């Protein structure tokens, strides 16, 4: 499968960048040149990232293997993807680990044999005990030649959902998502929650219903799930497939069997929806970068040309220069408002995100404590612990998505502060997975209860202790009436008091067990809150620095553009006639090129609805 004929107009965009760079170099604008070259690298990057996600044991890895017809992911009843695996095209197969190499986030790559990719690479000897962050694989699959890069993720379900936030963190800079759910049952509540959150971050995606060969009622399940998606307002199509039939079809070269597996539907989705980049945030940002640079250069060249063409400028220069200085100072003062908007906004976001996390954890704690109060935790602790871990993981995921949305909104607000000063074409930076991803591997599970269910022997012993006292006490009183120590009255009293003692002991033991269960729960929530709170604060600080650096560079560029425009005006007034004519022609040529660049950008924006943003 190859990519269609350049619907993004990459060649046109690259040409516009090159023209703008050439003029920026003539004006000695190294800052704009560097920015445009970064934009050029981004637009020509052929990689199109597709994240494969889903709960545990749904067939994600088998789907990827069957799709590529290569064993690039671990499969089996007892096997699962344990670290993020990135698969891209290469003529010769290779594999390497990306490991943590320093305390400040430095990474290093370590080559591993391709035959080892089906083992647990977290313990690979080549890593030398360092944490394995991800696995990168080069595979000679024709499907990858068009630029597709598949990212296989660990399951987002299971014990405490430890990979939930990390998987969500991969979605901001993904071009598409394949959500995998087998056809054994309809969507669970955790799956529906994940689908809603994931679709908010990455709107281009499809749900792959796997293992249709194992479940004869898969059509009913698919229809039911489609209704769930419609009610949840998640416009994602469902493609039912069989990885087993696909593998047989490839090995037998059977086209009919391949059609029955329905894998061609996935390939069609990738070809028509993903390779065409229907949602192309990178392209939009690059166009914004070009527009911003072109407009700044237009201001500089236009100001100089006006000064060169006006022979009376020498007489008006002093007054006009003072006026333009004041205008520049006013404009720069207006753009400086972005710092106040950013700092105030970041403080609000940080406080709101922290408060939101605390509120969610408090609600989870209260809900689980009500569950503990309604049962004997010694009998149901496994279920209570699993519910607590899943609820906490869901709360963390909700908080993560909300933090991402608030951060993106803050970036837009800062960009608007530039627009309010009359400085358009200021783009918000992309908040990618490198900024948003989290690592919660150090989280612990809910501690086990020391209290155990009361056995039959303990129940009998509690009853005997109470009944013994009752028999002795009533028997001694009844001996005054000439009855023996053991008589019907004393035995009856012993049975009654024994039953009361057993109930009191049972209630006391239940209260102790519930208190211990609540203590374990609160300790677990406190530990999670400590780790997640630190991760959240660090993530927001990183985002703050990213936004600060991004807009500081823009402010510096604008300041330099205004100052150089003033300097060009001053210099132009002292040009000789011959030099002035030459300079006029040169400036007119530059303005003509810049005008064509801006006109092409408008045309490219008009073309965007043809392939961007369709559901």
UniProtKB/TrEMBL annotation:
Domain called Dynamin N-terminal: residue spans: 50-198
UniProt xrefs under InterPro entries: Dynamin_N, P-loop_NTPase, TRAFAC_Dynamin-like_GTPase
Coiled coil: none
SUPFAM superfamilies according to UniProt: P-loop containing nucleoside triphosphate hydrolases (SSF52540)
Pfam family, one: Dynamin_N
Organism encoding this protein: Mycobacterium asiaticum
Superkingdom in the source lineage: Bacteria
Protein name stated in the entry: Isoniazid-inducible protein iniA
